[in-house]
Amino acid sequence: xxxxxxxxxxxxxxxxxxxxxxxxxxxxxxxxxxxxxxxxxxxxxxxxxxxxxxxxxxxxxxxxxxxxxxxxxxxxxx
Length: 78
Hints:
two-stranded antiparallel ribbon, 3 helices, 18% strand
């Protein structure tokens, strides 16, 4: 299946009690939504988990980059 390329779209999410905007391409939003559904939790909760993991990394990547890397790692089964 060919990937559906598209322009990044911005969404606001609430994590750790504050709103933040994340810009991701449609394929990444779809995979995040799928991962949240499979985990049985809201999308915001999944993003908050990835955010907490990224903050343990030095230097910490930005959230958008962390989400893409988390999804890629998940796809590889790591």
